[in-house]
Every structure is written in structure tokens, then in C-alpha cells.
Amino acid sequence: MQLIEEIRRIAAEKQSAMCRLADEVWQAAELNWRETKSADATARALEAEGFAVTRAAAGLPTALEARYGSEGPVIGFLGEYDALDGLSQQAACPQQAPLAQGAPGHGCGHNLLGAGAFGAAVILKELVAAGLVRAQVRFFGCPAEEDGAGKAYMARAGLFRGLDAVFTWHPDAVNAVIGTRTLAVMGVEYRFAGRTAHAAAAPFAGRSALDAAELMNVGCNYLREHMIPDARLHYAYRDAGGKAPNVVPDRAALHYYIRAPHVDQMLELFERVNKVAQGAALMTETQVEWTVIDACSDYRPNKVLGDLLADCLAQLGAPDFTDADRQLAEQFRAATPAEQRIANLHNAEVFTGRPAAEYAAGLLDETVAPYLHQPGCVEMGSTDVGDASCCAPTAQCYTACMALGTGGHTWQFTAQANSSLGRAGMLRAAEALALAAARAAADPELLRRAADELHAALPGGYLCPLPADAVPEFCAPAGETEN
Q: How far apart are CA 400 and CA 421, in angstroms?
């Protein structure tokens, strides 16, 4: 209990720094690979706390690595700070009211995520400085989680090598440690090139790249029947070949997401999708090229660290919500129909075992779910935390930062990510991660068991899903400006 009391004391002392950072990142609301203001704010906050910060870590302009301490186990914390396009929203406002129409917003709460992980690193650093814990503290500022797989590029560069344990979290509507896996995913751009012609006078002289793209989509839709059940394919047009219907399009481009439960299954499906693209090009006498934009591994929950983090979260309890918080949550609850609230809580049902309808009937989650270690169960989403989890033993939790039934990637999420609800959940996450990290650092046997578990799951070590020549899409499109 003495350690918990000290962590609570430090967290209260550093709460204003966490909230200030969360607010600064929320205000910046920058998209993937363009998080310059957010990364700078995070770096400055770490430097003010005595960390040695490497900017542009691994050659990625908005990635960070911060270090403190030179002795003991190496404990890492993962922070994120990218926003989502089109989700601008006024803070704590329960009616849709964008700050700027069509602008980005933190509809996944990464402003809280990064600030909470920062807080956990600072708390552990203070414990080390006071001689209460022997550890080397690492904080990783990870860009482009939403689209870009920043951690995969960081893992490929070796940033997560040598870590004894990794801890992270994510804002959510429930309090739980994640014991399920996620899908591996690969983002690929397919570009078709054809030949223009007058679409009425001489269509026979043209070769339509748009036809090829459409045939590829048809082929992939037929492919779905013959994929493993948990695999997924989704696509969007990046270039539909122009706007003039009387011109045979000589170009078209598609952006595909290819997902599967394991990296090797994803790579196998990638080859099959490539063959469909080649077939479409053959049928239309066009050419096709493709580029892997990003890819990340399936998340591997570590039971040893998961049990530890769950115990720490249970000891600390749910976030300390006030009556004012409950009143605000009621307003957000009223903004979401009951059937949507239940649908939004489906994933929570998977990793907590508690029915979604039961959660949806409540207002705020003021309980902590027991840890369910389910490595055979796949949550139907993806995260580049998977790459960190394949490099070092990793545990992550959710803490309640919003009304139950709030949907991810929505304006409601953006609003609550800059509210007293979000700040309460962020503070509890920082305390839980720091407590788990401190206990792990003091227990060499626990760290050995966590490492043995990872080695048994991945005896061949980390297989990066990115091709060796893959390069992140660093730059904003022409004409786009920073926020």
C-alpha cells in the first residue's frame, strides 16, 4: 500500500502537466505522420521532467524516444498522438458542433493516450529518482497509429529491442486489461495505368484503368468466400481516373486493407489479392503496380504482465468520477440511441465476458472487469501495438474516459477526450501503468516468466510485416497545410 500511496501522491503532483499536454495535443489534432506540434509538445514535456529525448527517432520525423536511468530492468511506455480526419468537435459538447468543419479531431482519444503514458513514465522516473525503484525508463512517442503503422517502422528499426516489459493503454468506456489478440493488417495501394481515348468516338482505342480497378474489386469480393473466416478485405478509391465521362480513364488507384489473425496468413492473402489485381490488368490490357503503405502485426497479450496490470488496476479501482461527471455522461448517453450503444460495446463484451446490453444500461463504468486471457480470441480490429508486443512482453489496458456506449471514431469521442471524464480516466491509467511497471521492475522472476512466454509464442522472434523497402507516407498532399 505504501507504493500505491506514493504513486497517487506523485500522480496528483503531475496531474496538471498531464492535462496540459493532453489539451495541447487535442487542440493541435494532427493527422498521421504530420503530428509536428503534438510530438514537439510531448518532447518538451518530457525534457521538463528530466528525460533525455531523441526526436525523429528511427528517422521518423514525429517519433520520439525518451530515456531516464541507467541501471535495472528496461521498462517501456507507448504513447500516441495522431488524430482522425473529419472529427473536429467542441470540447465536452454533447451536440455535434465542429470547431472547424471537416477538420481532424481526436475521435480515438490519442491526446489522452499519449499524456497518460507520459504520466506513467514520469511517475516511474520519480520513483527511480527517489531510490524506491531500480529501473531504466523508456517512453516512445509513436506516430501514425490510425493509418501508417508507426510502431511497425519503429520496431523494424530496433527501437523496442532490449525492453524487459512494455505497458500502454487506450481510452475507452470500460475498465479492463486486454487479453485478446487483434488482426494483423497491411495497407496496399494498387495503381492501374491504361490509355485514354474519346469514350464515344473511339472507345476501342482506349484501355480503361478504371475498368481494371472495378474488376479487381469484383474479383476480391468473390475471393472473400474462399478466405479464412477471420480474414478481412476493405477498399477505397484513391483515384477514380478523373471526372470527365467522355474520356477513357488512363489511371485509377485503390487503397486496400488486408487483415488476418496472423502475419503469415495476412502475407499469404496479400499474394492472392495481388493475383486478382494482375488478372484485372490482364483482362483490360492495362498495367498494375502496388506499394505497401503500412503493415502491422497481430497483438500478442502477455499473460504474466496482463495478470500484473489487471491486479494493479483492480487495486486502484475505476476512475474517480464526480457528480458533475455523471451529469455530463448522461448528456452524452442521451445523444446515442440504445441500439448504437449496445453495438459500440460489442468489443467490450468480447474481452470482459460481460454482456454489451448490461454495460449499455449503465452510465459510466465504475467497476474493473476481471482479466480474461484469451490468446485464441481475436478482436476484429488492428493496432500497431502488435509489433511492440512481438518484440517485448507487452500489456495494455482500457480505462473509462467516456459514457458507456460511446462509439470509437465519432464526434462524441472527440468531445469527451477533452472533458473531465477523459481526464479522470487518463489519471487512473497513468497510475495503473506506473504501479505495474514498478512492481515488474522489482521482480526479476516475473520478468523472466514474461520473456519465456513471449519466446514460446514466437520462437522465431519478430517477423516485421513491412517489406524492407517500405517507406512511410511522410508528406501531406500538395496544398495541405499544418493545423
A: 8
First to last CA, the chain: 45
Cβ–Cβ < 8 Å for 319, 425: yes
Give the pLDDT confidence of 369-415 residue by residue, as tens digits: 999 999 988 888 899 999 999 999 999 999 999 999 999 999 999 99
CA 405, CA 346: separation in Å to the nearest integer?
A: 9
Say which residue the cell 459538447 belongs to.
93
CB < 8 Å & 24+ apart, contacts of 356-359 = 359/173, 359/174, 359/404, 359/405
pLDDT for residue 413: 98
Cα–Cα distance list, 77 to 27, 102, 302 (Å): 23, 32, 15
Q: Phi and psi of 393, rounded to 5°? A: -55, 130
pLDDT band at 476 (very low <50, low <70, confident <90, very high): very low
If you ran DSSP here, which 8-state letter would residue 245 be given? T
**The three grid cell numbers given for residue 6, joined into one nine-digit string:** 506514493
Vertex 134, ends 179 and 123: CA angle to 5°? 65
* Contact (CB, 8 A) for 125 and 49: yes
Give yes or no for residue 450 having a pLDDT over 70. Answer: yes
| Strand, helix or coil for residue 84 | strand
Domain spans, the chain: 2-181+298-457, 184-295
Report how far residue 441's alpha carbon sits from residue 367's, in angstroms, rounded to the nearest whole number: 27
Q: Are 441 and 73 in contact (CB under 8 A)?
A: yes
The three-point CA angle 350-354-360 to 5° equals 100
Render pLDDT for 129-144 as a digit per residue (tens, 0 to 9): 999 999 999 999 999 9
Strands 165-172 and 64-68: what pairing? unpaired
Q: Is the dihedral of CA 349, 450, 75, 367 positive or negative?
A: positive
Residue burial 237-275, b: 16+ Cβ < 10 Å; e: rest: eebebeeeeeebbbbbbbbbbbbbbbbebbbebbebbee
Who's near 117: CB < 8 A, 6+ residues apart? 77, 78, 79, 80, 139, 167, 168, 169, 430, 433
The fold of 2-181+298-457 is: Aminopeptidase (3.40.630)
The correct CATH number of 184-295 out of 3.40.190.10, 3.30.420.10, 3.30.70.360, 3.40.50.720 is 3.30.70.360
Q: What average pLDDT does the structure give for the chain?
A: 95
Q: Which stretches of 133-208 are DSSP H helices?
A: 150-156
Q: Residue 338's CB: how many other CB atoms inside 10 A? A: 12
Q: Which helix (H) or strand (E) holds 189?
A: strand 184-193
Query: Cell triple for residue 392?
Result: 517485448
The sign of the dihedral angle between the CA atoms of 259, 305, 431, 127 is negative
Residue 197, Cβ neighbours under 10 Å: how many? 18
The rounded percent of the chain whose pLDDT value lies above 70 is 98
